[in-house]
Amino acid sequence: MLLMIVVIGATGRYGREVIEHLLRRGVPAAEIVAAVRTPTEATALAALGVGVRHADHDRPETLPTAFAGADKLLLVSSTGPDPVRVAQHRAIIDAAAKADVGLVAYTSVTRAATNPMTSARVHRDTEQALTASGLPTVLLRNGWYTENHTATLPGAVARGTLSGSAGQGRIASATRSDLAEDAAVILTLDNQAGKIYDLTGDTAWTLPELAAACAAHTGRPVTYTDLPAEQYWQSLTQAGLPSHTADLIVDADLYISQGALAHITGDLSLVLERTTTPLTTVVARTLGI
């Protein structure tokens, strides 16, 4: 009997990588459904044999059909202003309950119950909604993406400076691919309802250390410049980021400076059965070295 794993947001970078890891692990494409806002953007997934269904977070009437027959559902947290995200997540949870989904895996945030970052509120609200729904749930409390800080490295190398507001705060980050692989593993395991995974990288690093890694890889001087929060926010919005995104980035950096993301749990490497991808590997890959 075929199973059905539904992945929400499958055309996003994380969701797409989850599907790629599911396929690598031998899950038949016929057992995977990509639930997406715009099906025409999922043609590459459809070409692999993955099912594609229309699922718009903001149009709840599209969700029951998208989730019909699902044994497992990966609820990838949405993006945007917090009130909108909470409403979207609640609509998905309601539809999943009506569809009698066998297991919901939710991409929460590390140390959700006590995490001080503003962005953690959405995850706490969503976890509470999942509990209230009675749905069998496994929580994937993802730590910080390494790419949150490495994506801008080419520009930092060109300028000779990497900016932020995190001071000497340490970050036990993990790559998007490592976290996506973790989700794929969990979705293929039995008896996951009620489990909680707090997923961090195996080592913690600072932004000055990231700048030093850039310099070491390129042979060019790259230093870290710690900016006051308002100045950093202005630089982000001037670079074209929406104000709410800049708010979250600056907020995260300030809490990073206080140690909010310095903890290491070991859960991720335990699930992957290997060490997490080192920062230097991501730096080299990002800079094309």
Q: Mind explaining what this structure looks like?
A:
The protein is α/β, with parallel strands linked by helices and 289 residues long. The chain folds into two domains: 5-142, Rossmann fold, CATH 3.40.50; 162-168 and 202-286, UDP-galactose 4-epimerase, domain 1 (Alpha-Beta Complex), CATH 3.90.25.10. 44% of the residues lie in helices and 15% in strands. It contains 13 helices and nine strands. The protein has a seven-stranded parallel beta sheet with strand order 3-2-1-4-5-6-8, sandwiched between helices. A two-stranded parallel sheet has the order 7-9. α5 (120-133) links the parallel β5 and β6 (137-142). α9 crosses α13. The longest helix is centred in the N-terminal third of the chain and has 17 residues, at 82-98. The radius of gyration is 19 Å and the shape is globular. InterPro entries: NAD(P)-bd_dom, NAD(P)-bd_dom_sf, NmrA-type_oxidoreductase. It holds the Pfam family NAD_binding_10. This is SDR family oxidoreductase.
